[in-house]
Amino acid sequence: MSSPNLTAEQIAFQERARAWLEANPAPETDLELPLSPLELATREQVEYYRDWQRRCYEAGLVGADISESYGGHGHSGCQSIANREMSRAGAPFLLNTVGLSMMIPAVLAHGTEEQKRRFVPKALSGEEIWCQGFSEPGAGSDMANQQTMAVRRDDEWVVNGHKVWTSFAQFAKHMILIARTSREHKYDGLSFFLCPVEGHPGVTIKPLVKMTGELGFNEVFFEDCVIDDSLRLDDVGKGWTVAMTVLTHERGAAEGAGGGISSVHPIERLIALARSSMRNGRRASDDPVTRDAIVQQAIAHEGLRQNARRARVPALNDHPMRLRMQQGVLATELEQSCARLGVDIAGARSTLYKHDAAAPENGYWPLAYMNSYGFTISGGSNEIQRNILGERILGMPKSK
User: Fold this and answer.
1) CATH code of the domain in which 63 resides
2) Residue 361 annotated to the active site
């Protein structure tokens, strides 16, 4: 059923999106597919998801609201509908998360016409993958403490420095890069670049092994890496401003160009696990404490769903960032608590990892729990998000 708040264009779009997803499910594959983009490990996995993003793009589900001049489909207010329909269908996540939700909004807001026409279409189709060069060993929560240096040389910039926790770098064509161009000013000394990384001289990418044994993150080293000035986004010294545009989208306070990670409802999965797990000679699903814990998860998930509906009604939003940022914080923590509950229900069997024949759901629950910490940290930890919500939205005094 369509929302009464949708326009005729949006209702027609929703019907087309739903019909296409029902008629065109993701191709079956023998590949072991990751839980989220953060666990992509092989070229074969990348190509599977690249193909899926291309199909969604050609069907009009990616870049729905972006101008046709930049490779989009020229609708109004339809991208959020596409995202919801992809999630509702349990569709695979879209590969190019950084390109869709971070690079494209930044380029559309701050880029030149040449940059928009050059980079946006290939990011929408998944042809070119992007990674994000923000975090450094000494610039995590304090993102303005960037030490990677870009020195101007005529119409070029020479970059030296070290980025860390860089998702997708091993598969990326380009990086959104924030670098220091002046040491005289902390914030105004930063500039923003669209940096080539794949095979680019002076760029070295080294994988970081997570506690799960997977490779999802990387370190990126810049040694006299030369970037043309045409790849600078906005003016010199405006890097912090551009970065805030990026983080607004990364933290969920604005709609991106595509759906990112689809969210399959986990409650049925928990119920099935409880029915197949034994506790003291009886099924875990018969234990009132376990049943109550699952019900609490179900209530919280329904609350998030209703909160998302509320966020789509302008009259119910007292601040444009509040509900979306709140949703991001609560959703990642709920995902973590849900995975933790799955581990608890599985009991001793949760110590069995992937590919162990006795592991429930092929080791899904311990893997989901360990990986859940990445989502409560990426884009600024949830503690940082709560500070932003308190200080910028509720007007509370700054934390010391």
Assistant:
1) 1.10.540.10
2) no
